[in-house]
Amino acid sequence: MLLPILLTLLIAAEDLPAPKYIVELQVELDHVQGIDVEANRLWVSEVQRKEKRGRVHKFELSSGKLLRTADVTRGVRYHPGGIMLDKNSLWVPVAEYRPKSSSTILRLDKSSLEVEETLDIADHIGAIAIGPQLWGANWDARQIYDLRTKTQRDNVGGTAYQDLKFSRGLLVGGGLRGKTEFVIDWLDPGTLKLVRRIIAGKTDRGVPYTQEGMTIKGDRLYLLPEDGRSRLFVFDLPPMKTR
In the 3-class helix/strand/coil scheme, how is 175-220 assigned residue by residue? Predict the structure, then answer.
């Protein structure tokens, strides 16, 4: 238990600034999972809990208008997780809705949302990041996977990452540390050592900013934490301090 505490003490956490702007999505979503953005497009994964269906949506980023939807349900695997774009593809994990279960990793065409590749994993993968490797985090990010080799490492920092990205050579995860601390972490992908941490609060609806969808492009952070009439919160981040 001491190692996560010691690692955290080495990093001076920063506070999340106020949102630069907010975009309200023009459809209601049952339970938001992951997001990514590119140009004027926003991709969102959603689980429909009563129907036991997983869906991926593409929106116009500036207006929140829905452009396209694809069903990504794979039988008992209907829980899509955190997602990430890679060139012309969108990577989506779709898992059983329970820990220590199974997942299918889908590579979709980012325009049509049609399936291009699948990869089965014998665990619940709840978030994914693509860079030099294909990383995944399982239920509450207890382990971080190299999904191509199907090897794993313990997440010694203890943050339950809900969405994971690879940016500027680092893994970036948005998630929860218990019920009172909501963070965005930058991790060294080789060691999983914490490099930067931003502390986030809650929306005016009382939802933690890092409850679900998170992505980062350069120094701009996007968070989509709310269900129902979901709102995309967009932040300008200060540059990372050099140590």
Answer: EEECCCEEEEEEECCCCCCEEEEEEECECCCCCECCCCEEEEECCE
Task: Give the residue-averaged pLDDT of 47-53.
Answer: 97
> Helix count (H) and strand count (E) of the chain?
1, 22
**CB neighbour list of residue 49: distance below 8 Å, 6 or more residues apart:** 30, 31, 97
First to last CA, the chain: 26
User: So where are the chain's domains?
Assistant: 7-236
pTM for this structure? 0.93
pLDDT in tens, 173-201: 999 999 899 999 999 999 999 999 999 99
Overall size of the chain counted in residues:
243
Average pLDDT of the segment spanning 99-108 = 97
Indicate the pairing of strand 125-130 with strand 134-138.
Answer: antiparallel
pLDDT in tens, 118-133: 999 999 999 999 999 9
Residues 241 and 243: their CA atoms lie apart, in Å, by 6
- 7-236 in CATH: which number? 2.120.10.30
Backbone dihedral region for residue 180 (phi beyond 0: left; psi -120 to 50: alpha; all else: beta): alpha
Nearest 5°: the CA angle 49, 160, 101 is 55
194-to-61, 172, 182 alpha-carbon distances in Å: 31, 10, 15
Among residues 42, 40, 132, 119, the alpha carbon closest in space to that of 83 is found at: 42
